[in-house]
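User: Earlier you gave me the apo prediction for this protein. Now I'd like the version with zinc ion bound, so I can compare the two side by side. Same sequence as before, with the ligand SMILES added.
Assistant: Got it. Here's the input I'm using:
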Amino acid sequence: MKKLPLSLILASLSTGTAFLLSCGSSPSSQTAPFSPKLSQYQSSVKITQALIPEGRYGRAKNGRMNPSYITIHSTQNYGAGADARTHARLLQRGGLTSKNNSLGYLTWHFSVDAHSIYQSLPTNEQGQHADYEGTGNRKSIGIEMCENRGNSRSATLDRTARLTADLMKRHKIPLNRVVPHQHWERIRYSDGRNLGHKNCPNFLMTNGKPGAKWQAFLNQIKSHL
Ligand SMILES: [Zn+2]
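And here is the structure of the complex with zinc ion:
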């Protein structure tokens, strides 16, 4: 694995339309076919830093974390503009609020599309992407795979696999602790209601659970270790 170049590009971005949800919400599901084949994409992992301002919005409470899991999501945002950059910009300006968790915002660490990776949180800070106050948020790095229209799913999966492999090595996280969002039971903070296990990332689950497609993705990660 190549060493991770951290590019410090704080791109000047036009304001996107704030139509996005996150996989914490539940728009309709998509059933596009999944190909476990590796794409031809061969670049090394590059990350654009787009951190949420320290002490604000989703970093108003920057709970410390020593990550021992990596949680994989997909955005279920199918709009043409719902790419990694747009999600990162939304998080940066506090655009994804939540009434249901203790933080008041939805946050995660990395957004990935076919062409880019944006980082929104340092990996030693907790996000709010998995299970409210549960272990998924307290102990895991959250990665959202984008599903914007026209975005290559196979290239997004390949980029996500490379990023995941790199994070595993950097944080000494074993493959059996790379989990789908579905892994975590969600006890909602606001009312204590048990929301069960989310079907996320939905295009890698089989009848709502990890199966052959998830295993193929794990194998893809393994090929980069
Ligand atoms: Zn999710």
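For your comparison, keep in mind: Residues 88 and 158 are 20 Å apart (CA to CA).
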